[in-house]
Specification:
By secondary structure, the chain is α+β, with helices and mostly antiparallel strands. It has a domain at about 35-135: Immunoglobulin-like, CATH 2.60.40. The chain has helices spanning about 1-35, 150-155, 165-170, 185-195, 200-230; strands spanning about 40-45, 50-55, 65-75, 75-85, 95-100, 105-115, 120-125, 130. Strands 3, 4, 6, 7 and 8 form a 5-stranded antiparallel sheet that branches. A 3-stranded antiparallel sheet has the order 1-2-5, with no helix packed on it. A hairpin with a 2-residue loop joins strand 1 (about 40-45) and strand 2 (about 50-55). The longest helix has about 30 residues, at about 1-35.
Length: about 230
């Protein structure tokens, strides 16, 4: 009787261990098959000069998901690019959003997965945000260097005075010589007054003539007076 009880207890223990092991295995399998944000990825691509954003879903559990893409600017949603539904596989399923993206643009890709919309399994963004390459899909997007206008290249600055031409600086007025010495001040005065070194002699001769003339007039007047008395 006691042997039967022992056997029963061991049987119960074995069954309990087996049940626990099965539960752990099922839990691990369920965790492995559960949808996870790490199974989603996004990439910016070019197709014939046109841009696109491609999102890949590698969820092996086949959980339906909704992908929403937003254009970002300084951490805020600027524009909703689009929204698509996808059911992933272990090999991966892609959805494409036609977007003429610019170089170094930033996009936020949001994933909502699960059949129950009120209690989704995944409700997260793919991190980090998608940043497009530094070169756009069109090769002619590079901005040409600015060229100065003719007015900017030919007009001299306002505070600069144009230098005189060689003809203006070297030419002298007609009929004059730039190398001729200017006359001295004393020479010009003598030429105008007619004065020279014989001025004293001329003055003496003039004084003598005045004296002789006066004497002649005096003697002439005495002779007239004598003749009138006789």
């Amino acid at each position: 009787m006691s042997i039967t009880r022992r056997t029963a207890r061991r049987s119960v223990q074995i069954l309990g261990v087996a049940a626990a092991s099965s539960a752990l295995a099922l839990s691990a399998a369920g965790s492995a098959l559960a949808c996870n944000i790490s199974e989603f990825s996004a990439e910016a691509k070019c197709d014939g000069g046109k841009g696109s954003i491609v999102v890949t879903d590698k969820d092996g559990s086949g959980t339906p998901a909704t992908i929403t893409v937003f254009l970002e600017n300084n951490g805020a949603d600027v524009q909703k690019v689009g929204e698509q539904e996808v059911t992933g596989t272990r090999e991966g399923v892609t959805v494409t959003f036609n977007e003429d993206w610019k170089a170094n643009a930033e996009y936020r890709v949001h994933v909502t997965a699960g059949k129950n919309k009120d209690r989704p399994i995944v409700d997260k963004d793919i991190t980090p945000n998608l940043t497009t390459p530094s070169e756009g899909c069109s090769k002619d997007e590079s901005t040409p260097p600015a060229t100065p206008s003719p007015s900017e290249s030919t007009t001299p600055p306002a505070d600069e005075t144009p230098a005189p031409s060689p003809s203006e600086s070297s030419s002298a007025p007609a009929g004059t010589s730039s190398n001729a010495p200017s006359p001295a001040a004393g020479d010009s005065n003598l030429a105008e007054t007619g004065a020279n070194s014989n001025t004293g002699m001329i003055a003496g001769i003039a004084g003598a003539l005045v004296v002789v003339g006066g004497g002649a007039v005096f003697f002439g007047m005495r002779r007239r007076g004598a003749n009138s008395k006789s």
